[in-house]
Each structure stands twice: as structure tokens, then as C-alpha cells.
Amino acid sequence: MSGKPLTVVAHLKAKQGEQENLRRELLALIPTTRQEPGCINYDLHQATDDPGSFLFHETWTSKQHLDDHLGRPHLKAFLGKADQLLAEPPRITLWELIG
């Protein structure tokens, strides 16, 4: 994977009654993250048929840049609130462009 951009897909599901709070918290991550070294894109989506379901589509120039992102204060602060906002742990998959 080294030397190639890394794509992250993260699915997040809000607890009942926490949809707007989760949406607000996720949107707040975007401006800071987009300024991080190695961030190619950091895009948030909301399911049209389930407004409590969110998806981040991210691309990083390297796994190291992703690892650095995961240790940044703004992301750690969000993760500290995750238990009260999320119905289940985030489902995160890593992808490499092959064509």
C-alpha cells in the first residue's frame, strides 16, 4: 500500500434521537481535516433513505498520513463523544485504487 493513495470508507450510524447531534459533530471535523497534510479528500455523505446513516469517503496520500489523522486532537475529541452518538461502532474499510 505504500506509495499509493489510500481511500477510507467509514460508515456511522446515529443512535435514536442523536442524528442531528452526530451530523453537526461530523460536519465540524471537515474544515480542520481538509487542511491536514496528506488529505486529498474528506467528504461526508448522508443516506437518502436513512438520515441517521452517514458515510465518510476519504483519500490520503499515504497510510502514514491517515495514521497521523487518527491521532489528531479534533478526531480524538470526536471519538470521546462517539459512545453517546453512535448506535454501533463505525465500520471502516481501507481501499487502494487498482484501475
For the record, give the distance between the C-alpha atoms at the N and C termini, rounded to a whole number: 14 Å
Q: Number of DSSP strands?
A: 4
Please tell me the overall pLDDT: 95
C-alpha-based Rg, rounded: 14 Å
Describe this structure in words.
The two termini are 14 Å apart. With 99 residues, this protein is α+β, with helices and mostly antiparallel strands. A four-stranded antiparallel beta sheet has the order 2-3-1-4. It is globular and about 40 Å long. The model has no long low-confidence stretch (mean pLDDT 95). Helix 1 (19-34) packs antiparallel against helix 3. Helix content is 37%, strand content 30%.
Task: Describe the secondary structure blueprint for this structure.
Layout: E1 6-13, H1 19-34, E2 39-46, E3 53-60, H2 63-70, H3 73-85, E4 91-96
Antiparallel strand pairs: 1-3, 1-4, 2-3
Q: What features would you highlight for this structure?
A:
four-stranded antiparallel sheet; alpha+beta; 4 strands; 99 residues; 37% helix; globular; single chain; 3 helices; Alpha-Beta Plaits
Brief digest:
By secondary structure, the chain is an alpha+beta fold. It is built from three helices and four strands; from the N terminus they run βαββααβ. It has a single domain, classed as 2-Layer Sandwich (Alpha-Beta Plaits).
